[in-house]
Design goal:
This protein is an alpha+beta fold. The strands form two sheets. It has a four-stranded antiparallel sheet with strand order 3-4-6-5. A hairpin with a 4-residue loop joins strand 5 and strand 6. Helix 1 runs parallel beside helix 5 and helix 4 packs antiparallel against helix 5. The radius of gyration is 22 Å and the shape is elongated.
Length: about 180
C-alpha cells in the first residue's frame, strides 16, 4: 500500500513540475533568461545550449544580452534565436547579441492567459488520473484481500489529500502567472 501511495504521489508531482516548466516558457512581456531555455546553437557541428556558448544577462527589463565566448558564433546564435520562433529579433554589434523583448498587446496577453489555463486544466486532469489509478489499485488490493476495507478507505482519503494539495499548487501557480501576464 505504501508503494502505491508513493507511486501516486510521484505521478502527481511529476505532472505539477512539468506544468511549472511550461509556465516558465510562456512570454510575459518582460525579459527572462528562461525564454532562451531549449535553444541550441550549432557549435562546430554539435548542438549546444545557448547558455554554454554565451554569457546571458538582462541589462534592463526589456532586453536580453548574449555575449558569446567566441565572436564568430554571433551569426549562428542569431540564426538559432530566429529559428526558435520566440517573436524576438536579434540585433548584434559584432561583440554582443541584443534581444529586445517587445511589449505584449492586450489581445496577445489574453491569448497567453488562455494557454496557461489550458495547461493548468491538462495538469489537473493528470493529477486526477493519478488519483484514480491509485484508488483503483487500492480497490484491487482490497478485492484480493491484501488489505481491509478500513485500509482501503484510509488510502483513498490520503490520495484525496494529495490530490487537493497538488490542485491547490496548480491553481496558485496559475494565478501568479496570470497576474504576471496582465501586469503592464
Amino acid at each position: 500500500m505504501k508503494e502505491l501511495f508513493q507511486e501516486t504521489e510521484l505521478k502527481m508531482k511529476t505532472s505539477v513540475d512539468h506544468f511549472h516548466d511550461d509556465l516558465k516558457h510562456l512570454r510575459t512581456g518582460r525579459a527572462t533568461l528562461s525564454m532562451l531555455d531549449g535553444i541550441t546553437v550549432d557549435y562546430y557541428g554539435t548542438p549546444t545550449p545557448i547558455n554554454q556558448v554565451a554569457k546571458l544577462s538582462i541589462p534592463d527589463p526589456t532586453t536580453i544580452l548574449a555575449q558569446p565566448y567566441d565572436s564568430s558564433l554571433i551569426p549562428v546564435i542569431e540564426k538559432a534565436i530566429m529559428q526558435a520562433n520566440l517573436g524576438l529579433n536579434p540585433a548584434s554589434d559584432g561583440k554582443v547579441v541584443r534581444l529586445p523583448v517587445p511589449p505584449l498587446t492586450e489581445e496577445r496577453r489574453r491569448e497567453i492567459v488562455k494557454r496557461a489555463h489550458d495547461l493548468a486544466e491538462a495538469t489537473r486532469n493528470a493529477v486526477r488520473q493519478a488519483r484514480r489509478e491509485g484508488n483503483d489499485g487500492l480497490k484491487a488490493m482490497e478485492k484480493e484481500k491484501e488489505i481491509g476495507e478500513d485500509d482501503e478507505r484510509r488510502g483513498m482519503d490520503e490520495h484525496q489529500k494529495l490530490h487537493d494539495h497538488y490542485i491547490g499548487e496548480i491553481n496558485q501557480a496559475l494565478e501568479h502567472k496570470e497576474q504576471d501576464l496582465m501586469t503592464v
